[in-house]
Automatic annotation (TrEMBL):
Broad class of the protein's primary localization: cytoplasm
GO biological process: L-arginine biosynthetic process; ornithine biosynthetic process
Organism of derivation: Lentibacillus populi
Gene transcribed to yield this protein: argJ
InterPro entries: Arg_biosynth_ArgJ, ArgJ-like_dom_sf, ArgJ_beta_C
Protein's recorded name: Arginine biosynthesis bifunctional protein ArgJ
Annotated GO MF terms: L-glutamate N-acetyltransferase activity; L-glutamate N-acetyltransferase activity, acting on acetyl-L-ornithine as donor
Function: Catalyzes two activities which are involved in the cyclic version of arginine biosynthesis: the synthesis of N-acetylglutamate from glutamate and acetyl-CoA as the acetyl donor, and of ornithine by transacetylation between N(2)-acetylornithine and glutamate.
Length: 407
């Protein structure tokens, strides 16, 4: 059968749409009322790849998870808590992460190294292992609910984030689903951002790792909310092979590219949902940079624009202050010919050949005021490469939320 290239988004789909996965969440008492302990597992050990924060202060769970994956490049289960990040917690924090892993491995009846651990929340506090132990004891592996898992990993998020894409590979239906959390301290390379992806595709570990890194580089690493990179960021994908497709390899360029494209679409959706849900945000900002000599240049300029506090506040205030966009491009560190630069807000050109056009300011102000998705387009006229970046506006509520985060 000829390979189908069309990617189909599954409404209401997510990490449980792929065959052979189960997940849920419980309240163990780290938070006052809300779910705060989530679990995910595959019926069989799954090839696993992950990427992590570049922050030098990597949280204890990341160290344990890296060790787990390194043994066989496989994981069967994941246990994750919210409320306490278990970061900057020293030897006790590492011991707690190991204990958390062991407790869930016992629950699953599998080896410790087949369990990954993640945490998100306040930095510098020790986990209450008695609460974690009681929470894991509550888990009913026969019950499975995607939304409970998604709620259990939230911190300041205002909603859960899901996506699912399906495609056909060599006559078999393959599913890739994902759930993420992230609202503040988002400036990935990566940042407080967790994303867990599942697929029933059969794919070799090396190919899975390359596909994930490519997808993350074009998506999660192109968002910023506030310029802060967290200690706990993780994007992890589990591939259990239950779709029974012919195993994807790097040499199988056609199917590998199809899988990578689908994975990138999943990651892009989750990245945009995170950017839209920035703490106190009222608008999603998408920047498209075209005409660059290098993709890296386009990405750097895009992230600089969406990361600019002055651009973000101008969008929040519906102020057509194009000078702030030009200014941010100028300090992005990318060499360019300013006389070639073109900038549009929405479909309204505001800069041509490096100079302002005679645009109708009220039209731009109204575009910024009445739309909750704001598009800024920059053309460098220096090449054929392009990139996208996503962020959000900066509102009064961002300060309120973060001024009282621990209270």
């Amino acid at each position: 059968m000829e390979t189908q290239t069309e990617l189909q988004e599954v409404t209401e789909g997510g990490i449980l749409t792929a065959k052979g996965f189960h997940a849920g969440g419980v309240h163990c008492g780290i938070k006052r009322k809300r779910h705060d302990l989530g679990w995910l597992y595959s019926e069989v050990p799954a090839h696993t790849a992950a990427v992590y924060t570049t922050n030098l202060f990597q949280a204890a769970p990341l160290l344990v998870t890296k060790e787990s994956i390194a043994v066989e490049q496989k994981i069967q289960g994941l246990i994750v808590n919210s409320g306490v990040a278990n970061a900057c917690t020293g030897e006790q924090g590492v011991a707690n992460a190991y204990q958390m892993r062991h407790l869930f491995a016992q629950k699953l009846g599998t080896s410790d190294h087949l369990v990954a651990v993640n945490s998100t929340g306040v930095i510098g506090e020790q986990l209450s292992m008695e609460k974690i132990k009681q929470g894991i004891a509550q888990i009913n592996l026969n019950e499975s609910e995607q939304e409970s898992f998604a709620k259990a990993i939230l911190t300041t998020d205002t909603y859960t984030k899901h996506v699912c894409i399906q495609l056909e590979l060599n006559g078999e239906l393959v599913t890739i689903g994902g759930t993420a959390k992230g609202s503040g301290m988002i400036n990935p390379n990566m940042a407080t951002m967790l994303a867990f992806l599942t697929t029933d595709a059969s794919i070799e570990p090396v190919a899975l790792d390359v596909a994930l890194r490519s997808a993350v580089n074009q998506t999660f690493n192109c968002i910023t909310v506030d310029g802060d990179t967290s200690t706990n960021d993780t994007v992890m994908i589990m591939a259990n092979g239950e779709a029974n497709n012919q195993s994807i390899t790097l040499a199988d360029k056609g199917n590998f590219q199809l899988f990578t494209d689908a994975l990138t679409k999943v990651c892009q959706s989750l990245a945009k949902q995170i950017a839209r849900d920035g703490e106190g945000a009222t608008k999603l900002i998408e920047v498209q940079v075209t005409g660059a000599a290098r993709m890296e240049d386009a990405k750097a300029i895009g992230k600089t624009i969406v990361g600019s506090s002055l651009v973000k506040t101008a969008v929040f205030g519906a102020d057509a202050n194009w000078g702030r966009i030009i200014c941010s491009i100028g300090y992005s560190g990318i060499e360019l010919e300013t006389s070639k630069l073109a900038v549009s807000i929405g479909d309204i050109p505001i800069v041509q050949h490096g100079m302002p056009t005679h645009f109708h300011e009220e039209l731009v102000n109204n575009y910024l005021k009445w739309n909750d998705e704001i598009k800024i387009t920059v053309d460098l006229h220096s090449g054929s490469e392009e990139a996208f970046a996503w962020g959000c506006d900066l509102s009064y509520d961002y300060v309120k939320i973060n001024a009282s985060y621990r209270t």
